[in-house]
Amino acid sequence: MAKSLTQEFTKGLWDEVPPFRLVLGLCPVLGVTTTLENGWGMGLATMFVLVCSNFLVSLLRKVIPSKVRIACFIIIIATFVIVVELMMQAYAYELYISLGVFIPLIVVNCIVLGRAEAFASKNGIVPSLLDGLGIGIGFTLSLSALAAIREIIGNGTLTLHKKAEIMFELANYAPSFEPFAFMVQPPGAFICLGLMLCVMNLIGNK
Amino acid sequence: MREMVLMVVVLTVLSSISGGLLAYLDDYLGPLIEKNELQLVKGPAIKKILSKASNDPISDSKYRFNLKDEGVEKSFFVGVFDGKPNVVVFETTGKGYGDKFGLLVGVNVTDDKIIGISLTTHKETPGLGGNAKDDPTWVEQFKGLSVIKPIKITNDGGSINAIGGATITSRAVCGAVTKAGATYMKMKTQVTEQLKSVK
């Protein structure tokens, strides 16, 4: 049941979009999505790790002995995570501060390890790259969507880039809007995620 | 047997390549990261201590100098008060309730008294030990204390009121300030020498 390359890429965008369809890797999904900037920042960081580790795992899949494959995957993933961490500290320090511990935690993100084990270690380089890219984009979009909804309701703003001051403030358009702070707190994340899952299932079942 | 050798070889090669790559990257990005830390973490803390100073030691590198203390480079930031460069701010570390913390201490060299302290990086519990950084009235207590005598919390016979529920943090901060004072006294001649050249 070999899928076409386009299918490998697009499955990550809807059919297997990680937080909603697979319901995997929920820790960062719930933890960082308080502002839109955090959402896409975390998404891009994960996507970078996912694509690079998928590529390398797939490249080395014939060399890595199956008994130590998990250890090898973790080394590869951890290396790329530290690369991301250092790059972020050097070029986007504010984002690094606001994402905090969630960046090192990408190492144990089950999406990344899951793709390495379930896909990249069994498939060629090109499908693995496309798989990583598709899942990564899907993950980034899901995080951004969840973060956008939470931020606009919970804080009345949408921050695309805080330092460059690219942001949207609802108060300029609807002065009487009262932010519903519950949404940016942890329980709000669960409820928002649940509602989004529900909507996605409704659409998918038709 | 062959498989076992292969396992060891693969893991070793993989780890060494990754280690090498990261060491190179760390070396390459290190200065940039340090600059970011200086501007975004230490910068505001130094400014808080030197809020009444007339100069800006963060953007102007002539108000900074480095000295070696037991082989370790230490950065000193100079604050100009009433037209005279008589305050130095430097960083020290301590061991708090949650891992190490960084602490900036500002000392007036004319009377060896503390003009202010500020926590930089820390992992104390938010709301308890974290108040050492977030509660400005608590760090106020250190203002005007002499660095010659050890600084202690009231439970230990000192003058600092500990933060409620965070005795370990309070004690650690006092210890770090005392340690900073000792370092300062040891290096005072060098520091005053350097200050003369700052105009």
Structure in words:
The complex is a heterodimer of chains A (206) and B (199). In chain A, 65% of the residues lie in helices and 4% in strands. By secondary structure, chain A is mainly α. Chain A has one domain (10-171, 179-205). Chain A has a two-stranded antiparallel ribbon. In chain A, strand 1 and strand 2 form a beta hairpin. In chain A, helix 4 crosses helix 5 (69-91). The longest helix of chain A is centred in the last third of the chain and has 30 residues, at 125-154. Chain B has 199 residues and is of the alpha+beta class. Chain B has helices at residues 2-49, 131-134, 136-140, 167-197, and strands at residues 64-69, 72-81, 84-95, 100-108, 113-119. Chain B has a five-stranded antiparallel beta sheet, with helices on both faces. The longest helix of chain B has 48 residues, at 2-49. The N and C termini of chain B lie far apart (72 Å). Chain A binds chain B through residues 60, 63-65, 67-68, 71-72, 75-76, 78-79, 82-83, 86-87, 89-91, 93-94, 97, and chain B through 3, 6-7, 10-11, 14-15, 18, 21-22, 25-26, 29, 32-33, 36-37, 40.
Q: Kindly state the number of beta strands of chain B.
A: 5
Q: Per DSSP, what share of the residues of chain B sits in E-state strands of 2 or more residues?
A: 15-25%
Largest sheet of chain A: 2 strands, antiparallel
Radius of gyration of chain A: 18 Å
Order of helices and strands of chain B: HEEEEEHHH
Task: Give the overall shape of chain A, derived from the CA principal axes.
Answer: globular
